[in-house]
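Table S2 (continued). Query chain:
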Amino acid sequence: MDLKVRSTSEYKNISLEETLKTLGTSMDGIPESEAGNRLRTFGYNEIQEQKKNSLFEFLLRYWGPMPWLLELAMGLSLILGHYLEGIIIFALLTLNAVIGHKHSSSSQKAVELLKKKLAVRAKVLRDGKWTMKEAREIVPGDIIAVKLGDIVPADAMIVNGELSVDQSALTGESLPASAHQSDIVYSGSVLRQGEARCAVVNTGGNTFFGKTAELVRTAQPKSHQEEVMMAIVKYMMYLGLAASVVVSLYALMMHTGILTILSFVVIFLMGAVPVALPAVLTIVQAVGAMELAKKGALVTRLDSIEDAASIDVLCLDKTGTITQNRLSVTDSIPFSGHKKEDVVRIASMASKEEGMDIIDLAVIEYAKKTGIDLNAYRQVSYTPFNPSIKRTEAVVEADGRQFRAVK
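Corresponding output:
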């Protein structure tokens, strides 16, 4: 079947039945043969990265404003017959390229290894049978089963079931969102509660996450470090040119030969080029990257260290970036003569750890920290939070008597 690519937002506006018809699928999934055809059409369910030629990447390190200056200095040295100086400059230029390329390659390998370790698998219905597949092999039209703790492998519409979905990685919202039949769940979201069958509507770069990732691929601007170095070189060149003019005028007045004057001019211009500066800065950045690696920060681009150091104002997403995206209880405020321990005890009785509700987990964790023995109480029944009653409650038994705890 010839499927047309639709944006995920379009599927939000059509019914479940129409979605299944559009995707050419059913409640029994698609045949394995059709899945193969769609895999060839839509590609793997992953964000495509630009493959880089290692040799080309290395040679590119000889191209740029600072390498040009070093190459100019090397050329002038060779023209004047200063071969040793030319070799030294070439060695510094190559050292700079080798250090940068080696660090970039090792960082990229570490990232690839991390991706393999974090590879997601999904439960897929094909030919009427459930099988476990790598998430990258999922195609539009697949019926997948998701449950508590799973990462949603692709944009999908819920066929049946109810879910509590953590979409903080996409929206920044820390509290989970409820999703029901015909609702869309997005690739990369984490399921906090429930289980459901879903029909995959988009994969890879066509997902909401994939579109977002494409937006952040921007051209590399000139770094602040490069701007500073070029400013230094510019001022040095001005001084070198001024000195060359003065010396040339004086030499002409003294009837000095043209070749001798040119030799002095070349020497002044070479002196304006900071030959060792790029290599020194690269080594300093590499050392900084190694120190950051010891603290768990993986630097994939050496220039990013300098970029971070020059930041005046940093605008970023809060949830899960500068916070842990975890709710926690820090204190309780009792009323009517009750103690703090009473508030925490009753709140923990009206919480259920197995339900994986983030508020319940925060309350239970705080109760354990304060030394409350939860094993002394047994939940006879438990009613999770409901928007209509606006509370969570449980019937609890302790010392042979029952009572109700409400939160």
